Structure prediction request, 305 residues.
Amino acid sequence: MAKTLPYIVCIGILLAGNSLAWAQETPVIKASIDKNEILIGEPLRLSLDVKSPMVSGNQLPQFDSIRHFELIEKGSRDSLISASGASYHLEWKLTSFDSGTRYIPSFAIMIGKQVYKTDSLAVEISYGKIDTAKDYHDIKTIIDIENPDVKYIPWILGAVTLVSLALFVWFIRQPPTVNRQPFANEPSVIRISPLDEALASLDQLKKMLHEDPSSVKKYYSGIHDTLRIFLNRKLGLITMEKTSEELIHNLSDMRMDRDVFSNLATTLRMGDFVKFAKYIPGPYENENNWDVIRSAIVLINERGK
Prediction:
């Protein structure tokens, strides 16, 4: 027994060394995201870290699309090669316009002849903090506020009356003049209604995009400004200096159908995404967003009568 003890100890040391060496050679694969909850159109960052004991023979994933997600920036790659192996760090920038719980699938990485897979990642995508389950409120009437300058109105009216009388006396003392008839082709000023003005503007923007598809950024700015100008003329709302989120909050006070309000909020956020994130929507999205803005303007006009 005493003679075999050294052999047993040596075998144990060799097995432990092999186990340690095997553990050191096990690849480490990890996928992660910087946000688990985002708003519609909000960007998130997807990262993939790979530590491999092999310097060559590593096949890292590359993709052009993920279901329910849009690729904003293609993957950037950093690598570090050393005597102990290779380390890789890959990043992609994504977003999504599909609300609900969406999953980024697992990635397959081949190291040598062995395939390793990452975990899938869940992302909660929503329209924001507006509670669409609650009833929307009617458009509020304008509240009159007492003006402290009212006491000066009689003095102003008196001054205006005196000036008017002076002008009247001056005019009646002037020699008569021949009334000029307008020319046949002289343009007349016609003030159109807020609805007709908005619909005409939308038609021009639609025609512009058909003739020049590259003007998509100007197209989205135009349809959003058309909605803002209509709300200002029709309801007296101050809209031009508001952000899209502030405008969506104001629109939530109007009694709209939930689907109409949801589509309108998505269209306004997509306009910001086109402007700031350089997102290029497809022809179907452009046509659909135009229809959403037009339908909302017609609906608000009917409610405002």
In short: The longest helix spans residues 283-303. The CA atoms of residues 38 and 62 lie 24 Å apart.
